[in-house]
Amino acid sequence: MHRLLLLFTLVAMPLLSHAIEEPKYEVIRKIDNVELRQYAPYVVAEVVLDAKAEEAGNRAFPILAGYIFGKNKGEKKFAMTAPVTQSAAPVKLEMTAPVTQAAVPGGMQVQFVLPANVTLESAPEPLDPRVKLRLVPASQLAAIRYSGTWSQANYDEHLAKLKASLASAGLATQGEPVLARYNGPMTPWFMRRNEIWLSLR
Question: Which among 1, 98, 110, 136 could bridge 60 via Cys, Cβ 3.0 to 4.6 Å?
């Protein structure tokens, strides 16, 4: 039931994206279709899986959804902003976007961003040892936004555009690219908001 509620919520995200909280950032510069963003610190729930990129999201979702729906000490639940709401007992936390995915040592890292008012101290402790909570420090990222399928070809095309724009501007990056998905798998491809992020040096 929890997985169904999560899927239903993610399907509706493109229609109600204004109600879904995102990490706070400021656009400091634009280059072609690329935004250079200054992100404020935020907290994530994450899991690292030994899986291929195309499999990691599907395998990680039930694990992270379990945390959101009460698999934590105190059985605290996150209230979804749209379209399904749950009573908050005893702490109310909203679902946020995006879900991010990146290659890390040991596999693929998939993250749920937690609401801005959640700190490492106030976030409920996960019962599943695979779920880790982490503070992402303030950072500058380059982001390219695109729609369409989650195919490797679509990803590769836009990653190449992102890297080319940054190279032409003389900007260096560090770390692995991050795929940010703002919509569920049932969202029509032309309505999807996808982004690729690269950390700036």
Answer: 110
Q: Which residue has the tokens 């204004």?
A: 18
CA distance 71 to 6: 14
Q: What is the pTM of this model?
A: 0.78
* Residues 20-54 pLDDT 10s: 678 889 999 999 999 999 999 988 888 888 888 77
Cβ contacts of 7 within 8 Å, gap of 6 or more = 184, 185, 186
Q: Output the six-digit token pair for 103.
A: 């290659």
Phi then psi dihedrals of residue 155, to 5 deg: -60, -50
Where is 165: in which H helix or E strand?
Answer: helix 152-168
Q: Which residue carries 């040892």 as its tokens?
A: 129
Task: For 193, list phi and psi in degrees, rounded to 5.
Answer: -110, 115
